[in-house]
Design a protein that fits this description.
about 300 residues, mainly alpha, 2 domains, 14 helices, globular, DUF2268, Peptidase
Length: about 300
């Protein structure tokens, strides 16, 4: 397998330096090598519109602020660090589960939008997706905390990618449960923590609620809810639900991440397995073991 971290730095510099009328075309050219991450979307996908929907950097404002932030990512060696982290993580995963399928990976790193209040606030300047096999999408604003977690964030998304690659867990958008995504977030964090420690390995949005029993009980009550359209509220929380047109359920940002960590940690402690060994563990086995009951 090969890991291709797209060299988006010069492309983003060129976009920010270009006349506004030229920017959409240049952006489209930059994203095109990773267009496969949208292959499950119906119809033809507008790559520029998807960029903006995903909190990508703006094309019509904040040029100086974005240019400075882009240099901060470059100075932090984001591209090199993420590439090396993914190579090491694949090796660690294969050592634990040598028979799995590891797809070729395409990894775009994109600067975020400083004018997006949800991205910069509740989402803490980070938006990432590793759910489509063969693609890991990473969107950052260079807050110091995010720069410190570049490797752990990439490895978290890799864990999703490998869990849902051929031969692994099947993700059916209509029937998949909240419990599956909650478990997957916990497994991805646990894998990142095995490689980078608790301080860096936890997804930042889940940390404030790791020990909140009321949040835990609320998320556990929704683990059997089905359908991807419900996941934003149950996993990411009310602020994200409102942002993306879903119905809030009374949960803070990152609730599902916090609960996923607790469930997975309890499962790993009970079974003696590592997160890498549990890559393809069944969600019902994890949840049932963690809660001390059969499912």
């Amino acid at each position: 397998m090969t890991i291709t971290v797209l060299d988006t730095y010069p492309a983003m510099r060129a976009i920010l330096d270009s006349p506004p009328a030229d920017r959409p075309g240049l952006l489209r050219d930059m994203i095109e090598p990773a267009a496969g991450m949208y292959r499950y979307f119906p119809g033809e996908v507008d790559l520029v519109a998807m960029h903006h929907a995903g909190s990508g950097f703006p094309l019509d404002r904040d040029e100086q602020r974005c240019a400075e932030a882009l240099e901060a990512l470059h100075d932090a060696d984001a591209w090199g660090r993420i590439g090396r982290a993914l190579e090491a993580a694949v090796a660690a995963q294969l050592a634990a589960t040598p028979g799995i399928t590891v797809p070729d990976l395409t990894v775009p790193i994109v600067l975020g939008d400083p004018g997006d209040e949800h991205f910069m606030g509740p989402n803490l300047g980070m938006n990432a997706n590793g759910s489509v096999p063969g693609h890991v999408f990473l969107n950052f604003w260079p807050y110091p905390e995010n720069l410190a977690r570049l490797e752990a964030t990439a490895v978290h998304e890799l864990n999703h990618n490998l869990r849902y690659s051929p031969g692994g867990v099947v993700w059916d958008p209509a029937s998949v449960t909240v419990g599956e995504q909650v478990v997957s977030e916990g497994l991805a964090d646990a894998f990142a923590r095995e490689l980078y420690g608790d301080d860096l390995g936890h997804a930042r949005i889940g940390v404030p609620h790791l020990h909140d029993d009321a949040v835990f009980d609320k998320v556990v009550s929704g683990l059997d809810v089905t359908g991807m359209h419900n996941f934003t509220a149950w996993v990411h929380g009310d602020a994200s639900a409102l942002r993306y047109g879903a119905t809030p359920v009374g949960l803070p940002t990152g609730a599902g991440y916090a609960v996923g960590n607790r469930l997975v940690d309890a499962y790993l402690a009970a079974t003696g397995r590592t997160a890498a060994q549990a890559l393809h563990a069944d969600r019902d086995e994890i949840i049932g073991t963690a809660l001390g009951r059969s499912r």
